[in-house]
Amino acid sequence: MKRILVTGGAGFIGSHLCERLVKEGNDVICLDNYFTGSKDNIRHLLQYDNFELVRHDVTSPYYAEVDEIYNLACPASPPHYQYNAIKTMKTSVYGAMNMLGLAKRTKAKILQASTSEVYGDPAIHPQVESYWGNVNPIGIRSCYDEGKRAAETLFMDYHRQNGVRIKIIRIFNTYGPRMNPNDGRVVSNFIVQALKGEDITIYGDGTQTRSFQYVDDLIEAMIRMMATGDDFIGPVNTGNPGEFTMLELAEKVIELTHSTSKIVYCPLPDDDPKQRKPDITLAKEKLEWEPKIRLEEGLKKTFEYFEDKIKE
Ligand code: NAD
Ligand code: UDP
Ligand code: UDP
């Protein structure tokens, strides 16, 4: 069985990944500084001998002997990554460098959780991996977008210069149980608002689009990517090509939750991308993967999670 390090393992995606890896019998180290993650997300794994929890910040060096590294540590929702923009950049860049140093020393395979945000406000639709993107380098989203772009550069250079065995995946908007109710991203905001009977806040006119991937589909893609041979390093898009406007999403959430909430319109944040949809041809070919969970089904599972969470 493999020794696997998951940075950001106590976060939304990281906790699902740790769960899958532990249940497959691997020896898992979950590393997190609990900035946006929580022990609650992985408490159920503490009972397993093959799960270990470490409080650590990836901006500092970390030493362990491992076979694989999944690098997820980084706040992902705009309010959280903008809360301390300089720290976000440090987490992306120093975090990547430290984990690449660790991979170089241990000869571990390392997977980077990159993002569709590297495409910025895309001029090409749907987005293919060969598109270089349209990112504002000096805006309020830049700490995240450019931090993730710099991390991809570091991954490629450690691969070319030091032969590090890398994998890069570009994750499109992902949702599901264990999102933080205060996360600030659109799916959790709308569901929590609908459940509490509060106004549903659409930013801008609601015509901007996103493609939403259910977390289980993403985890399957991550595992498959890590299992590919050393000749395939990506970057590869992982996302659900179903594309929805935020107005359509709000209406779906209201319908599903039978909520009495009303839609209200709020100012659109700066640099908010107008459209987002992955081209997943490469993932289909190289990973033999495509998403299975439709938006209605995924929203229902997420809604059930938040219903219980809000009662706590
Ligand atoms: P999340 O905020 O729930 O998880 C991030 C985790 O990283 C948290 O547990 C947080 O405490 C931890 N962390 C943050 N800074 C750290 C640091 N300096 N040292 C150690 N740990 C630190 O977000 P998520 O949605 O689970 O995202 C996980 C990863 O996937 C992130 O790298 C994110 O950029 C990437 N991603 C997510 C999405 C999405 O839609 N959820 C889309 C694209 C990419
Ligand atoms: N590093 C780490 N864990 C390790 C090996 C390296 O955190 O097991 C850190 C190291 O402290 C350095 C970074 O990773 O800051 C990059 O490592 P590299 O070997 O490329 O750089 P160098 O040590 O030569 O500066
Ligand atoms: N959004 C919204 N209401 C909210 C939160 C977000 O209308 O309460 C919009 C946001 O402006 C963006 C889309 O929903 O156009 C997705 O936002 P999110 O923060 O989830 O992800 P990202 O912008 O990083 O894709």
UniProtKB/TrEMBL annotation:
CDD domains given in the database record: UGD_SDR_e
Pathway(s) the chain acts in: Nucleotide-sugar biosynthesis; UDP-alpha-D-xylose biosynthesis; UDP-alpha-D-xylose from UDP-alpha-D-glucuronate: step 1/1
Ranges for domain NAD(P)-binding: 5-302
GO molecular function, one term: UDP-glucuronate decarboxylase activity
Keyword NAD: yes
Entry EC no(s): 4.1.1.35
Pfam families the record matches: GDP_Man_Dehyd (PF16363)
Entry keyword annotation includes tRNA processing: no
Cofactor(s) required, per the database record: NAD(+)
Keywords assigned: Decarboxylase, Golgi apparatus, Lyase, Membrane, NAD, Signal-anchor, Transmembrane, Transmembrane helix
Domain of life where this protein originates: Bacteria
SUPFAM superfamilies, A to Z: NAD(P)-binding Rossmann-fold domains
Protein localization: Golgi apparatus, Golgi stack membrane
Top-rank EC class of the record's enzyme: lyase
UniProt cross-references to InterPro entries, sorted A to Z: NAD(P)-bd_dom, NAD(P)-bd_dom_sf, UXS-like
Topology within the bilayer: Single-pass type II membrane protein
Family to which this protein belongs: Belongs to the NAD(P)-dependent epimerase/dehydratase family. UDP-glucuronic acid decarboxylase subfamily.
The protein, known as: UDP-glucuronate decarboxylase
